[in-house]
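Bit of a strange request maybe. I'm writing a small parser for C-alpha cell strings and I need a real example to test against, not something I typed by hand. Could someone generate the C-alpha cells for this chain?
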Amino acid sequence: MSGLLMINELNEHMTKLAEGVRLMAKYGKEFAEAERAYKVELSQEALKLRDKGLPVTLIDKVIYGSCADKRFKRDVAEVMYKTAQENVNATKLRIRILDAQISREWGRNGPND
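Reply from user aminoacidic:
Good idea to test on real output. This should exercise your parser:
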C-alpha cells in the first residue's frame, strides 16, 4: 500500500473516531436520562405501593413489573452507549495499527529505512 493511501485511510479513521466520540456523548446522555427516568418511576411506584398497604418485603418483587417499560428503555440506551464505546475502541485500534504500519514503511529516512 502506498504512503499516500495509508495516510488517506488514517485520516478517514480519524474522522470516524471523531464521529464515534460524538455518538458516544449523545448515547451517554440518553443513557443517563433513561436511568434517571427509570429510578424516579421506581421510587414513585414504591411509594404508591407502600401507601396502598402492600408489605414492604413484597414491594421489591412487585415494583419491577410495573416499571418494565422504563427499564427496557434504560437497557436499550445502555446498549447503544456501550456499542458506541466499542466502535470508538475498534477505530482507535485501527488507527494504531495503521500508524505503526506507516512508521515501519515510511520511517525517518523514507520508505524501507
